């Protein structure tokens, strides 16, 4: 299905939405489509909000951010996010902050149908004092106090993956991150893929495959995770991450860049962006 | 031996603390460089783990992010992020958690969350990521960072990750049974916690560094060990290894053009 | 290392031990070696005790069994286990009985370093009334009552796997069951493998590999999971499972069979047992 | 159509209750045969899951155990057992849990644990395996078994898995929000729970079966629906599919010699 329709049919104003990807397979094309469609009042969930959430926050689409590490990976801070948190520009942003362990466990618990996750965490950590969604339970055998966080159940999850087959099963490989858990945790799941193949015959039986009936919609967008990368397809565009630091530093520069590179473009622009990052044959 | 920078000394001094039997949870930046220098010199058997899920990785260049493709391509195995935090970190398999810091206090408590008040921060930093649980689940914590009064402060603004708290047996009082910060390597000195108070104490000054320089770039009154040694200068092998690594890294990360060049090896 | 030494160095009288394998990769050779070495007072842990635990129980080596399904898979009951539970022969057997979900979660929790597992289970189930190790916790967010079981931390785990490399990393593939969790859950782990290869170069990055530093000892025993199977090496010996029903039905027949096939044999007997089960080239 | 056995009728009647959109958690024995007949006839899209971790499997022969190699070889993916019970069963992904039973009562409560007292059993049965959580996490439960007074009893000796408890809204009172047993197919009849009392009620008799035969092989006073239909006899396709499946299965499982024969296909 075209990405435009997949996004329109599955995302609504006010939704809690996760565009997940752990440095690898970040669903940039889907995020840009959501920006073009101009959704409002979103609660954005992600372990590692990076460029795409900086962009959505900078465009004023987010009322709340649930996260565990908000940086431009390997570069520094996220300047649109800072502007929203520090100055309330373009609108104030409520934040719910966790550790990676908490977020990973919370997605996992939701995929497992549980209302909460327990883990050994947050001991001595300041977040436990500022986030009311960090609570505790006592182990009924040892009495040990364990941290508890609510399961993360987004209304909709977006991920990028390498391949789908004609039946609609999805393959994720390489750094698989949290891709499987977020799809199983969410009420609806939209996947962009690099390509569609006839079938997955010959694949090793233990790979990370999401059966077709766990996925709501699939859109083919080659290059759709640029400037992140897709293992086996193209490399990370490190220069784009460095460049983002400059673009996001200034409100006007940011606006102009978004206008030119997101609002006036479509999903078909991504293939060209990764052309120079593909492996030599 | 040729001259070396303070930053090179820091990375190399940190690398020496790692053993071939260590299983090391690696943060990006200086920790990553130190871990890989160790692997390429005296500790080829070391296991490097990045929180993206890559276990036993051996990158040819330093990754820009903790999830670069080469980490996966060279790893013994790559697991999901929930598994990484459950089986490998919380499961007690990590001997050394290697962290950087925006702010640190004398007890190895770290802040990477906010400068100023949490609700109304002057500067919103990236946050903790894996650090809150690395700090308590890894058997020991090594920290490496450049000294400055902005970074080494009397009181940190936020307890992103717990070191020795108020010192002494504070960890034990919270039921934490791991050792916590046992080593701090800066660009000027090597620090270790006092056995009783757990305050970081300078045990070794890098070549040419004075006690005054250490104090001038530190926000608390610095304690020095009874005997302060001089850090061994980088060996030719160490320095060459680090510089080669950095050169390979720079070449690989320069513009997107790296892909074509690396293709023949990776493909 | 020879299996004899790997077992002798890692198993002791009175240990809590798990020989795990979920129909696939059952560590029969290791269990037979343990029988030959005559350990006593073991607490045997396994989700699916089958022939090898029937054998160890029949030989009087076990004082307790922790399990969730005690059958001869596809055939019926375990007759030596029944004799121990129903008649105390050759010695009484204490049992701690769980569901599969509970055992799987308990191994998982132990691999994850937790003191207990919580899950949505045992609702309306009789086991919750007869097993004091089934307790509950309330979700601190929803108030829902969830089942809790203590983490399973065996003194030693034995598994069979396909391959090790020279460095000592272990590969498990196909039906991976609980192999990884039990190794990470146990204090010591002994692995028998079909073969050793130089390295795992070329393997897909997301396969189930246990790094060398998670494994205490490795012994090469081709055919070591007969009459179970090793995916990629040989098929399940269904006839042997059917035949076991006859052997175990009678105390004397059982004793004679054990004498001839276990006590008087060694690990090197296994290769021949699977010769007719290997795939045609 | 040629004659058919009661057992064949049972398997085929059970298979008809499955839809192509179902995700079915399959027990070994009669459930496995019914699920695979459905897949090979009217419901090719059905997803069959065995608790060994095989998702979307399509075996050419019926497995003897829930972990036979062919289940893995033909599956969409094969996951670990903890993941199977956490993400797939507890995660609410299973539409139909298909169980057999050693003992069952009129409310679909099942015993596969012990005959007699739990602490001092007359017969120690295998136990529950996955059933306690299948019974409450799968959206619906189908049960299939041959009738006998020993198996269909007034009171089961042990509540291995919970059906409708004492009937009525007992599930809801325990906080269980899945439907529980909605279908029982025996060798004589098709049963469904009464909407209010949840007692299993005969809704259809297999061809040639009388009400008396059903009562004679059941340990409680049987209730019949207001209108009892006759189960449609197996079609030629259904019967042929089942018999072919059984013949392939028997050939494959006969002695260990199966391996060589299957090699050319599997290798």
Automatic annotation (TrEMBL), chains B, D:
It comes from the Bacteria. SUPFAM superfamilies: NagB/RpiA/CoA transferase-like. Coiled coil: none annotated. PANTHER family: ACETATE COA-TRANSFERASE YDIF, CHOLESTEROL RING-CLEAVING HYDROLASE IPDB SUBUNIT. This is CoA-transferase subunit beta.
